[in-house]
Design goal:
There is one protein chain. By secondary structure, the protein is mainly β. Helices cover 13% and strands 33% of the residues. A hairpin with a 3-residue loop joins strand 2 and strand 3. The chain is globular, with a radius of gyration of 13 Å. The N and C termini lie far apart (30 Å). 16% of the residues are buried. The mean pLDDT is 85.
Length: 94
């Protein structure tokens, strides 16, 4: 059973240009990226970190029932930017 809370968390991430950390049971096991789209069964995330260099910037379409754990950043609790010293996000206004 897919939690409505999970769907809502990912849907709100799109509205506020937020990123998410997702833990999966199989490769790539975990990654961080910007949430791009949600449907009733899937979330699409553009991978920034936690994947091979060749897969960075690629969209991953993940079934909600395959997600073992997740964290969607908020304006108070950000996921650190692993590539830039400055954590620049243009969309933090809520």
């Amino acid at each position: 059973m897919i939690s409505e809370t999970m769907r809502n968390d990912f849907a709100s991430a799109i509205s506020f240009c937020r990123r998410a950390l997702v833990v999966l049971p199989s490769f790539p096991f975990f990654f961080v990226g910007k949430v791009k789209k949600t449907t009733s069964s899937y979330v699409t995330i553009n991978a920034e970190f936690g994947v091979a260099q060749e897969l960075r910037g690629k969209d991953f379409r993940i079934r909600f029932d395959a997600i073992r754990a997740y964290f969607v950043e908020t304006s108070k609790h950000k996921i650190p930017d692993c590539f830039n010293e400055e954590d620049n996000h243009e969309c933090w206004e809520e």
